[in-house]
Amino acid sequence: MQFKAVGGVRINVAVLAYDDKVLWDCRNFLYDFIDKTNYNLGITLTKDSSVIFHGMKFVPGGLDLILVSDHYGEEKYEEFVKTVTKTLNHTKVFFLGEEQKNEKIGESIIIVSSKEQLEKQLSEEIIRLLIEERL
């Protein structure tokens, strides 16, 4: 999260997708989400997970939310999730793509089956982040 001089807060979101069309669909979804909610989101789009690891260090305030447009597979993403969440941070990782599956795994992983569910979970997590920062 990045605090602005005029009192605003920017929530930093990274999107990981392996296909250009999916990446741009996620981008458009997030811009529509911004229009609906008026949240200030900083968006990073990538097809390479190493960009996310570097972004966690170099994006002012770090990454708050990571959206992975792929099915969650523990074997495939175990190291990714461990690396993202190993430090004491609040980063949440969303996986979009599981049919009929909406669940939280531990403190950091949220699996959603639709963009509607993703929108709901994003709103909840952003509100949680904003409340935590005010306490």
Strand content: 15-25%
Counting helices, strands and paired strands, the structural category is alpha/beta
- The share of residues in helices is 40-55%
| Alpha-carbon Rg, integer | 14 Å
Q: Label the CATH architecture.
A: 3-Layer(aba) Sandwich
Along the chain, the helix and strand elements come as EEHEHEHEEEH
Please, what is the average pLDDT? 82
User: How many distinct folded domains?
Assistant: 1
Give a quick account of the main beta sheet: strands, pairing sense, barrel closure: 7 strands, mixed
- Per CATH, the class reads Alpha Beta
Shape designation: globular
CATH fold-level topology: Rossmann fold
| The CATH homology group name | Response regulator
Give start-end ranges of low-pLDDT stretches: none
Number of discrete helical segments = 4
N-end to C-end Cα span: 15 Å
| Number of DSSP E strands | 7
Tell me about this structure.
The protein has 135 residues and is an alpha/beta fold. It has one domain (2-134): Rossmann fold. The chain is 44% helix and 24% strand. It is built from 4 helices and 7 strands. It has helices at 20-37, 49-58, 74-85, 115-134, and strands spanning 2-3, 9-16, 41-46, 65-68, 92-96, 103-105, 109-112. Strands 1, 2, 3, 4, 5, 6 and 7 form a 7-stranded mixed beta sheet that branches. The longest helix is centred in the last third of the chain and has 20 residues, at 115-134. The model has no long low-confidence stretch (mean pLDDT 82).
